[in-house]
Design goal:
The chain is an alpha+beta fold. It is built from seven helices and five strands. A hairpin with a 5-residue loop joins strand 3 and strand 4.
Amino acid sequence: MVAHSSSRRIAASEQRILEAADGPDLAVGAKVVCPPHGVGEVVATSVQEIGGVRQVFWRFRILGSGLQLLVPEDKLSRLGLRAVIGAERVPEIWALLRRRRRSQVGTAWTKRFRTFREKLASGSLWLAAESLRDLLLIRRDQELSLTEQRLLDDALRLVSTELAVATGVDPAEVAAELLALVGVP
């Protein structure tokens, strides 16, 4: 977990909700968040023999990027899977994005990069949304470095995909709404 006070408060709130959900239900067709990749769909399970040991594997297709993950069943708990947020939680994300104050991020781009990368890798939608908002606000004031632009693209993909799955809206529509909300053309 990122050690920033505002981020810690958001992440702790989210963590209580996720713990109450008792983890995502896994079945072919289920959509879950696979940190740090984003929302993925379970596309298959299979049994493979590796080194003389039969193992069950779960295959995930990451929405928005097409990346495929093949994870042994005994390693699923390490992956940090969580359920996609419910539609009732979506307004909280929009409210966070409407706040115009940037979180406490250092002005040096290398410090910002580390902070944003940690937040995006956490798997927390709240931290990804906070990073998206902050990067968009920085971009309004100054040109982003190529690395920061990639982080912005990742944050936009992570947030728009999860919000789209939670609400049943097309991810491209959600991305356009996100950019418009913060006032980015």
